[in-house]
Amino acid sequence: MVLLLQLISNGIILGCIIALGSIGLSLLYGILKFGNFAHGDMMTLGAYFAFLFKVQLGMPMWAAFVLAMALTAFVAIIVDQIIYKSLRKSDSIILLIGSVGIALILRNFIQLIWGPQNHFYDKGIQMPIKLGLGVRVKPNQILILVVTVALVILAHLFLRKTKMGKAMRAMSDNMDLAKVTGINTEQVIKWTWVLGAVLTAAAGILLGIDTHLSPSMGWNLLLPLFAATILGGIGSPYGAMLGGLVIGVSQELSTLIIPPTYKPGVAFLIMLLMLLIKPTGLMGRSV
Amino acid sequence: MILQVKDVVSGYGDMDILHGISIEVNQGEIVSIVGPNGSGKSTTLKTIFGLVNLKQGEVLYYGDSINQNTPDQLVGLGLSFVPQSDNVFPSLTVHENLEMGAFISKTNKKYRFDLIYDLFPPLKEKRKTQAGNLSGGQRQMVAFGRALIMEPELLLLDEPTAGLSPLYIDMILEKVAEINKETGVSVLMVEQNAKKALKMSDRGYVLAAGQKKYEDTGQALLNNEEVAQLFLGG
Ligand SMILES: Nc1ncnc2c1ncn2[C@@H]1O[C@H](COP(=O)(O)OP(=O)(O)O)[C@@H](O)[C@H]1O
Ligand SMILES: [Mg+2]
């Protein structure tokens, strides 16, 4: 029982990180109609930018967090303008292949600058807090939960209340109609990259806080990210949040019956089952 | 003259659909385009709005070429387009659909929304409903509202009554006449209900196989026996 609760609690933390990453992945799919294979490495980049500001430049963590999100968004816009913009008129498979290339470039860049070894934001060891029933969480994990909830609420408000957020949903509904309506689609695409990059950078930083930084940290999460996105219904950011939590918790719970090394296989299995049973996802529209 | 389509050749990919079409709309007119399915009516409107590749010819708006303008620039110039199908954002609410129509406006002026709700009272109660959950007729009202909210000077309508019940068909066509009369907006309309459309139009064009076959006042086309036999079902 204790073990079960402990695994669920760990799963929720992992789920938070996956959810943050998959919201952006889902939005980008909805608007640009391609799966961004560089999303995991953008997550890594965000984590290393925070390392740069916090550890190498000695800034407070909150400042490093905000600056890293901003810098990741900046990189995303630059990459979009230089690479994706010229590919937009081509097939979405071309965009996908382009993103695989960008994923490799980002990962190698990170390894070149910060080396292949693991890094930490903090060297100290945290004393776990006992939550009752024998469940223990690290203070950092409570921080991860709080930051995730705050960011998800902000993303929700952005999508529901701002003109730009509504335009993103409109473009995701019908790109041609959005153009006819007078929506400046290129401007909206830039904002979509900003939102996606900011959230995925946050996911990377939170993952770094929970464990450590490594050049392949985001790439390793790409499969769960896609699984969460598909589970929630591709193009549905709210579904992606739900999908993230489901994938996170099931991955952790799976260790009850299978060795932990097979954890990513669980995400893959859920993704396959979902594609077979209900391809539109839990909250997806019938496209 | 508000719109002049001059010898336009356009199409999809390598295939030409329009083979040299010329159409004119004078200020304040209602002009209808009728013709059989697949004759290129929708393609004509899409070409005007820059959604289909224009290969030859010219589209002039108030005498200036708009060949190179993007759709969002055209909206800024006072053009507006209601496509034939999928013409609302289904996951957005009625009010959000209208807001998108006003995307190019820096300020969200309330009076614009009031005008639309006055024009289509049923929308006011449904403003928080997702457009995808509305009936066909109400959806068409949303599409009109979205297109009218920036107070355009030229309104392009592609089969505004397609798929509607007879009751709604008359209601929508009456609205078109009312909007034209009250706001002075010029209308270029494609319609399946050719007789009804020509009756309320100042002028009309008959298209077949990507070419202009007839061009006259609405009444004259209705009285033209050849046109009646070939295109208006006797
Ligand atoms: N997106 C498209 N791609 C290729 N061909 C198209 C496309 N849309 C329409 N067509 C073709 O162009 C021709 C004219 O279509 P359209 O302008 O929609 O006719 P109408 O509106 O008069 O019924 C048809 O033969 C149709 O098959
Ligand atoms: Mg048509």
TrEMBL record, chain A:
Its main location: membrane. It comes from the Bacteria. One of its GO terms (biological process) is L-alanine transport. It is found in: Cell membrane. This is Neutral amino acid ABC transporter membrane protein. Signal peptide: none annotated. The lineage of its organism: Bacteria, Bacillati, Bacillota, Clostridia, Halanaerobiales. Belongs to the binding-protein-dependent transport system permease family. LivHM subfamily.
From TrEMBL, chain B:
It comes from Orenia metallireducens. The lineage of its organism: Bacteria, Bacillati, Bacillota, Clostridia, Halanaerobiales. It comes from the Bacteria. Gene3D superfamilies: P-loop containing nucleotide triphosphate hydrolases (3.40.50.300). Signal peptide: none annotated. One of its GO terms (biological process) is L-amino acid transport. Residues 3-234 form the ABC transporter domain. Belongs to the ABC transporter superfamily. This is Amino acid/amide ABC transporter ATP-binding protein 2, HAAT family. GO terms for molecular function: ATP binding; ATP hydrolysis activity; branched-chain amino acid transmembrane transporter activity. The keyword Acyltransferase does not apply. Keywords: Amino-acid transport, ATP-binding, Nucleotide-binding, Transport.
